[in-house]
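Re: the request from the purification team.
They wanted to know what the chain is likely to look like in 3D before they choose a buffer screen. I agreed to run a prediction and write the result into the notebook, where they can find it.
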Amino acid sequence: MKVCAVCNSSFQPSMPLQRVCSLPCAIKSGSQKTAKIAERKRKAAIAKERRDLRSLKLSIKTLSDWRKDAQKAFNAYIRERDHDLPCISCGDFTPMTRGGDYDCGHYRSVGANPELRFEELNCHKQCKRCNRYLTGNHVNYRIGLLMRIGEEKVAWLEGNHKPMRYRIEELQAIAKAYRQKLKELKQQPVYPV
């Protein structure tokens, strides 16, 4: 005796591999299998369409788009790295009183010094008020920078640097590296003070 795969009733099979008790159950079983196959094909087609769309989007990305991606990953890492530190310019720990969340503030601006765009010494957590509304609050930023990294490194930042022109492959590598660094930083255990 076997149990029918469709209606769960007991039956005596007439063939060795028989799974259903009657013709109506066999038709129902066949239609269920057909529906499952159609669903699998539909999901495969959707997945292929998504892959094709993703590759198309990647193929039309410009150098500027890749630069934005790399900058976004870098800024996220800097904000997480300085998570427990106050704003470098004003020393404030409460971003809500200063316009919300924190930014990744550049001491030497990206527009004036694009070669320092991804330099970790040049970037620190800064409240939005100082970074956006006080245009970087540079005098206080320099004072905070001197306390954090020292006079020698600040002098290096203020010196001349070799111009950089990033290629797409370099920007992709930078974005990948800083996403990985951010992931590792978030996985570190937090110890109470």
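For the purification team: The two ends are 69 Å apart (CA to CA).
Please add any questions underneath this entry.
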